[in-house]
């Protein structure tokens, strides 16, 4: 309801006619050229955190996604794990064994019973998340083992259908009637597809008619920044290329829990992975929580992102706690903050040091819950918010606290100064464009975080699976609106970030991949995020023009080396935009375009941005905007022109070696 009211308010403020179904908003300014003059002085400061990312484990974005561990169901977590992803190899019988827990947290192991007629090497396979990515690289493998065995164990990476062996590695193991940990590394050659499995084999002759148990099997390719229990290097690099400046985590819905007991609990996601029980998530599959609280913070540190940590605030989908019932959970938030921020000789701070991080984590932003205007949270949120706000603010007055809604009726009547308000929206392209000026009249004393947004073209005939140029252009228009208001819109994140193809429960996402090589596929919206985020001004500049916004939208900014003009043409006609940036001569123009419904499909990247050097003797640049086109012009500001023309020459040399798409 709030969304509709906002849309109407915006539509009225913009003087828009009622939309006829199928009519595009674009037909407002029919002239084919737009002239813009950037005024280098004046303007408002832009939030340095504006473009960031939001992450929660959904669409197997964490386990089976950005987290490096490749084997599925390794801890038998969740409500009904069964033998998912396991297969027997040779004459053995495999079973989930709850009588032999690996630890207090990992309640089951895999029992491998050797049949009387078994010969040679036998064991089991794990087929990963719809296959195991097999690359020419070095893998780290770790497992726990119980049972009487002294001899070789062979670890392999094998084509599931082809039987082709890409890696085969022997390790000598001495195992007893207690679980012990075994680790090794091995090299592999590359598979041409993702239809592969990992195998653990042992000599059946050494286990006549007996059983062996294996627990918490783990397989890692190289990790980002070579962190142990880290992120996949290839996937994380793809995120890093967006140059995000904050990470909102761990949810999203996945913070809340389908029930109170299955909420995300910080203290169950820290320490050795063998001590993390995992949970049935809000997205109907188990989370191992191997990507836990500290791993999120290493991720932030490695990508130079500001952590935006959400804490559980009493709302789950199966029940809501408030008042005195909530107090133990508020106390637990303070434990969590001592873990993150306390000195290494405090109770929880010492636990952090023991887990590998001596210095406190730099946590400056905390969000209280998730979407408390929804799923029954509204009535009690004013009280729950105040209770948690007072507790955190009392101990950590410097932390900026974020309310999980902007809906007034769900907030305290007189909220404390300095609170940031989080608002989420997923809209069809026209509706997102209609929200261009959503924040123009936002009171400057009430800053905003757009913690989730994105175009979802639910009326597209081919479904919402993957972003199209139309959607990506509408996002660019909307982001221009966010940037114009980035004195008050502090942070914004497209969501969701990524998916493992085949495990999609919500789409589109910025990018996706599967177990096959080179499967990382950016959606068209990925490029819009990258173009906008990689080109950031510190000051939003006034622009002089006779033109009205629509179909062409723009925002200009500067930082200490460049002027930046971002443009989007939300219309079916080509447009010519003359941009004047006084006293500049050289720049780079990056453009993204394609037909209205052009998409990048899994494994099929058809749309990419292209970039070229532009020059002008008087600071006048002519930019041809394709229908639904998005462009970023960055020109070198006078003082360092010499400096930057060198960069331009290098950029030019790169350009001539790239196939020109336009
Ligand atoms: C600066 O912010 C004010 C609102 O506080 C707005 O009216 C003005 O247009 C902004 N200037 C620029 C250049 O964005
Ligand atoms: C070995 O015995 C199992 C039953 O214990 C049977 O299912 C399997 O077919 C036998 N394998 C061979 C090669 O005879
Ligand atoms: C165990 O593996 C090693 C290394 O591959 C090999 O040299 C050795 O012969 C194997 N041992 C047995 C008993 O097969
Ligand atoms: C591994 O050990 C097995 C027997 O233990 C042997 O047959 C095989 O050749 C060894 N493989 C390698 C690569 O050493
Ligand atoms: C372990 O297995 C070996 C041979 O497989 C056997 O000789 C030995 O008795 C077993 N030890 C125990 C404690 O079961
Ligand atoms: C294998 O073990 C089962 C029970 O554990 C027993 O009934 C059977 O006789 C054994 N078979 C052999 C060949 O030792
Ligand atoms: C986690 O925190 C809760 C709440 O304080 C506590 O009851 C529980 O014992 C803790 N669990 C572990 C494993 O530390
Ligand atoms: C922690 O160390 C600081 C100085 O390093 C000291 O002042 C403080 O008393 C210690 N706190 C505890 C709980 O030991
Ligand atoms: C808050 O920030 C100020 C200024 O940076 C600093 O002096 C003060 O110690 C901080 N207070 C706390 C509780 O961290
Ligand atoms: C300034 O803008 C240029 C052009 O977009 C960009 O390459 C550079 O990284 C920006 N500088 C800073 C400090 O953000
Ligand atoms: C352009 O440069 C000239 C000479 O340095 C200067 O006088 C003029 O003010 C500049 N114009 C703008 C708009 O900055
Ligand atoms: C450059 O742009 C300015 C301002 O838009 C205009 O006055 C001037 O005539 C232009 N110069 C050229 C060569 O187009």
UniProtKB/TrEMBL annotation:
Reactions catalysed, as given in the entry: Hydrolysis of terminal non-reducing alpha-L-arabinofuranoside residues in alpha-L-arabinosides
Matches recorded under SUPFAM superfamilies: (Trans)glycosidases (SSF51445)
Pathway: Glycan metabolism; L-arabinan degradation
Keyword field: Glycoprotein, Glycosidase, Hydrolase, Signal
GO MF: alpha-L-arabinofuranosidase activity
Entry's Gene Ontology BP terms: arabinan catabolic process; L-arabinose metabolic process
Signal peptide: 1-22
E.C. number(s) listed in UniProt: 3.2.1.55
Pfam family, one: Alpha-L-AF_C
Domain Alpha-L-arabinofuranosidase C-terminal intervals: 451-629
Record has Signal as a keyword: yes
Superkingdom, natural source: Eukaryota
InterPro entries, per the entry: Alpha-L-AF_C, ASD1_cat, GH, Glycosyl_Hydrolase_51
EC main group: hydrolase
Family per similarity comment: Belongs to the glycosyl hydrolase 51 family.
Protein name as annotated: non-reducing end alpha-L-arabinofuranosidase
Source species of the chain: Aspergillus heteromorphus CBS 117.55
């Amino acid at each position: 309801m709030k969304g509709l009211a906002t849309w109407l308010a915006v539509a009225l403020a913009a003087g828009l006619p009622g939309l006829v179904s199928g009519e595009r908003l674009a037909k407002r300014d029919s002239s084919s050229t737009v002239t813009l003059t950037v005024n280098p002085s004046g303007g408002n400061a832009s939030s340095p955190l504006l473009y960031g990312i939001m992450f929660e484990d959904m669409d197997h974005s964490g386990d089976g996604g950005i987290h490096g561990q490749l084997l599925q169901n390794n801890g038998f977590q969740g409500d009904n794990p069964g033998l998912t992803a396991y297969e027997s190899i040779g004459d053995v019988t495999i079973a989930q064994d709850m009588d032999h827990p690996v630890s207090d947290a990992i309640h089951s192991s895999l029992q491998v019973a050797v049949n009387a007629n078994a010969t040679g090497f036998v064991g089991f396979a794990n087929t990963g998340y719809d296959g195991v990515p097999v690359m020419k690289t070095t893998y780290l493998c770790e497992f726990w083992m119980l049972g009487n065995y002294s001899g070789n164990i062979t670890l392999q990476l094998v084509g599931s259908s082809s039987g082709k062996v890409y890696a085969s590695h022997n390790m000598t193991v001495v195992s007893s009637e207690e679980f012990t940990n075994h680790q090794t590394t091995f090299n592999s050659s590359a598979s041409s597809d993702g239809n592969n499995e990992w195998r653990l084999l042992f000599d059946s002759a050494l286990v006549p008619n007996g059983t062996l148990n294996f627990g918490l099997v783990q397989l890692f390719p190289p990790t980002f920044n070579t962190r142990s229990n880290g992120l996949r290097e290839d996937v994380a690099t793809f995120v890093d290329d967006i140059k995000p400046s904050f990470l909102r985590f761990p949810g999203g819905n996945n913070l809340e829990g389908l029930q109170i007991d299955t909420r995300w609990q910080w203290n169950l996601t820290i320490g050795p992975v063998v001590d993390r029980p995992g949970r049935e998530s809000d997205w109907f599959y188990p989370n191992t929580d191997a990507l836990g609280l500290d791993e999120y913070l290493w991720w932030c540190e490695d990508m130079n992102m500001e952590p935006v940590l959400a804490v559980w605030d009493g709302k789950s989908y199966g029940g809501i706690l408030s008042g005195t019932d909530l107090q133990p959970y508020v106390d637990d938030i303070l434990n969590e903050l001592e873990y993150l921020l306390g000195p290494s000789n405090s109770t929880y701070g010492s636990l952090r040091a023991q887990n590998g991080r001596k210095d406190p984590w730099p946590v400056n932003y905390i969000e209280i819950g998730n979407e408390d205007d929804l799923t029954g949270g509204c009535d009690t949120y004013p009280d729950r918010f105040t209770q948690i706000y007072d507790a955190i603010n009392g101990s950590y007055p410097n932390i900026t606290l974020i309310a999980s809604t902007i809906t007034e009726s769900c907030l305290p009547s007189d909220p404390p100064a300095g609170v940031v308000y989080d608002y989420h929206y997923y809209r069809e392209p026209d509706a997102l464009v209609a929200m261009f000026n959503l924040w123009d009249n936002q009171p400057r004393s009430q800053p905003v975080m757009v913690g989730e947004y994105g175009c979802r073209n639910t009326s597209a005939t081919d479904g919402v699976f993957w972003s199209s140029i139309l959607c990506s252009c509408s996002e660019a228009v909307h982001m221009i609106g966010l940037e114009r208001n980035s004195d008050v819109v502090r942070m914004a994140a497209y969501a969701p970030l990524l998916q493992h193809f085949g495990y999609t429960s919500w789409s589109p996402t910025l990018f996706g991949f599967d177990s096959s090589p080179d499967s990382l596929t950016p959606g068209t919206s990925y490029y819009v995020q990258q173009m906008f985020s990689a080109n950031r001004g510190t000051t939003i500049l006034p622009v002089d023009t006779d033109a009205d916004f629509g179909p062409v939208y723009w925002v200009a900014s500067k930082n200490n080396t460049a002027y930046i003009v971002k443009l989007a043409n939300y219309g079916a006609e080509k447009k010519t935009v003359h941009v004047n940036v006084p006293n500049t001569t050289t720049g780079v123009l990056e453009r993204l375009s394609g037909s209205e419904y052009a998409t990048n499909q899994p494994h099929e990247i058809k749309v990419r941005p292209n970039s070229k050097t532009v020059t002008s003797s008087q600071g006048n640049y002519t930019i041809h905007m394709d229908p639904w086109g998005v462009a970023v012009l960055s020109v070198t500001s006078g003082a360092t022109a010499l400096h930057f023309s060198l960069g331009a020459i290098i950029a030019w040399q790169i350009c001539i070696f790239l196939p020109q798409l336009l």
